[in-house]
């Protein structure tokens, strides 16, 4: 089985030696998506809500590049700089995963790239 590197033009370019996503068979594995504006490659959102929206928009772009979608996500991992902001992040997350939400882990980490508040990765199915 071969792997396909995903590098959508409507998602941020990788800021290190990794791929935005990998498609293998009928599965898409994304790298963690942080709230970078894909046009400016800068973090413009300054609240957990706005950063969660941008991270999920970036995640959506990577999934769609691989033929998947948010509706076909089976697992996410949410990395947060402060779990005290969990409820605010979760409210935005719930807007994107309305029916049959995926399995999810959420963890607090010591730091995230570029000092962001949230990073989200996913595994999605291709139908």
Give keywords.
127 residues, alpha+beta, 60s Ribosomal Protein L30, Chain: A, 6-stranded mixed beta sheet, two-stranded antiparallel ribbon, 2 helices, 23% helix
Structural write-up:
Helix content is 23%, strand content 30%. A hairpin with a 2-residue loop joins strand 2 (21-24) and strand 3 (27-30). The mean pLDDT is 97. With 127 residues, it is of the alpha+beta class. It has two helices and eight strands. The chain has a six-stranded mixed β-sheet with strand order 1-2-3-8-6-7, with helices on one face. The protein has a two-stranded antiparallel sheet with strand order 4-5. The protein has helices spanning 48-65, 86-96, and strands at residues 3-6, 21-24, 27-30, 36-37, 42-43, 73-80, 103-108, 118-125. The two termini are 17 Å apart. It has one domain: 60s Ribosomal Protein L30, Chain: A (2-Layer Sandwich).
Give me the strand/helix succession.
Answer: EEEEEHEHEE
How does the helix and strand content classify structurally?
alpha+beta
- Give the number of helices: 2
Which superfamily, in CATH terms, is the homologous superfamily? RutC-like
**Cα gyration radius (Å):** 14 Å
> What CATH first level would be assigned?
Alpha Beta
